[in-house]
Amino acid sequence: MTEDRSKQEDGEEIHHLSADELQAIEEEFDPELRFRTLAWPLTLITAAILFLLSCYHYYTAGFGIPQATVHRGLHLGVTLLVVFLSFSAFGKKIVTPSWKAPFGLPLIDWGLAIAGVLSALYVPWIYSELAFRVGNPLPIDIFMGTVMIVVLLEAVRRSMGWPLPVIAILFMAYAYFGKSMPGILVHPGASWANIVNHLYLTSQGIYGTALGVIATYVFHFVLFGVMATRIGLGQLFIDVASALAGRYAGGPAKVSVLSSAMLGSISGSSIANTVTTGALTIPAMIRIGYPRHFAAAVEAAASTGGQITPPVMGAVAFLMIEYLNVPLTTILTAALVPAFMHFFGVLVQVHLEARRLGLRGMSASELPNAWKVLKEGWLSVVPLAILVAVLLSGRTPFAAAFYSISACIVVLAIQQIQASGLIGGIKGTIYEVFEGFILGAKQSLSVTAAAALVGVVIGVVTLTGVGFKIAYMVTSIAQGWATSLHAMTAFLPFELMTVPSLTLLFTLMLTAVVCILMGCGIPTTANYIIMVAVAAPILGMLGVQQMVAHYFVFYYGVLADVTPPVAMAAYAGAGIAGANAFKAGNTAFRLSMGKALVPFVFAFQPALLIVTDGFTWQAFALAFGGAVLGIWILASAVSNWLFAPLYWFERIILIVAALLLVAPNLIATAVGLVVIAPVILRQLLPRLLQRSQMG
């Protein structure tokens, strides 16, 4: 970071980054936004296609969706066309028009775009004959399916990078070379014709649930998020958070946590959330004295938490409806406590760090007036209120999206008319809606391509049964470790944990590692779909409730965004702060301890999710209270501050106590309280004595 853009970490003023610099940072860490510059004819054509795609989805949300395969094929075909218009093969943003690149688009891209459209629309075209072709594909079916797979791999590579294409290729190789696999992974194998038949012509592959949910639900909520931002809802969240929390110690960091939680609840991207709110909060945190890497980490941890926050949850809430077959209200209720725990963990560490460093809050002159903010911006909350109300009423999610997007357009018209008069307001509204619809469709491109490619992974899992083989391997390893550890602790006069409990613990740990590794560099929705196919069956084999298993793998998949070495959200925050990226990533992971600990708690005590089988308020209270205390105590240990600085051995004591407290067991919680009592007394007694002497 150059000297003219920022100052040293001594509390001096730093300059805010320009819009171009912020866009460059977002593009650097989020390949989904690396759009190339097109010559003007293609720019207009691409904009028109994107606008019409949004119009199509807006219309179908309100007036009905066509037959599923037709709807999915149309959405995928248009998406692949625009992907090859918008993303270059090797990151070159501008190409000079020539005979090799008509209108600045290389011939290979023209070919891939056309191939993508034709192969995507082929399945809907033969839909009436599909029942007779599945299992007995014609040569043309195999050819078109092969084209689709190749085009999809390249589309996702361009728009997201290598991680997901590599995973898809490995899964297809596993399906083909099944006879050569070692041990339990061996299977009869499948010919290329059988693989293409399963992935292309059936509903278990590319045209399956993943693409269907994107085309039916996710697109609409991406569009709603864009439109809600254009009417000022994001800025309102930041202003309200500033008014509520800015005055307290370390105020800008607390504003970051609250605003990112609110904005993230309607956003589908951790990185976009980090850049949007971080542009304001990160410089403010640095200005009052937070270290640069810590400021970047706070914003990244809070922004990533937005992906688990109702009502949208990075659009995963609507995927869960399909996979779990439960009402949306059930999904959102289950998400409330874990989301609270994550943000509580970040807030506690932010507060303790502020106390340790002696940081101030924001001055009255720096803070907006809460009532004034709400009075001026209340209208922008109306679409969100409509969204939540329609969702809770039991109507379909796409109906909720239709009404809330419509409300955004109405609010936008009112704002434009107030600012520019009737004629100017109408013109301004048309322009804003046009731009918003283009941007909404643009932001859905990579997610759609990724979901279609995830269908390849799911298809291989259903074709080969590899998900259950992985589950058997992991649980067998965990059981071996559990048996060994149980035998090693047999000399103790009491039993720490039973073998089944230890098996579950080790299985959860191994599953968490799998989820983080496979979640690196993959967006939230695609991430969840992969985790459900590969990781959730592991927990299912041990009798973990399906909802619990889905939430566990979802949270650890999302945690990849702040887990080095591929902590993209943290690296984007570091780019704004001018901080060491790896240091910011490590700190963001530490700040996300609530998200890391709580899944273990609800795996052992599902009552924490409220809507699971066997729920009791007693079990919930024990799990909730223990988790809150455990997160606070662990935060104190890693921050080196409880009520005052800690000795090194006290920090070790607190870590042990925190692990006991978060265990949803009455005896463990009681022991944890006993363990921390001396540390608390040692810190509080001098203060109490000083106050009594002063009194």
From TrEMBL:
The keyword Calcium does not apply. The keyword Magnesium does not apply. GO terms for cellular component: plasma membrane. Residues 147-612 form the TRAP C4-dicarboxylate transport system permease DctM subunit domain. It is a multi-pass membrane protein. Pfam families: DctM. GO terms for molecular function: transmembrane transporter activity. Keywords: Cell inner membrane, Cell membrane, Membrane, Transmembrane, Transmembrane helix, Transport. It is found in: Cell inner membrane. The chain crosses the membrane at residues 38-59, 74-95, 107-128, 134-153, 160-177, 206-228, 294-319, 331-352, 373-394, 400-424, 445-464, 499-519, 525-544, 551-573, 593-612, 619-643, 655-681. Part of the tripartite ATP-independent periplasmic (TRAP) transport system. NCBIfam families: TRAP_fused (TIGR02123). PANTHER family: BLL3936 PROTEIN. This is TRAP transporter, 4TM/12TM fusion protein.
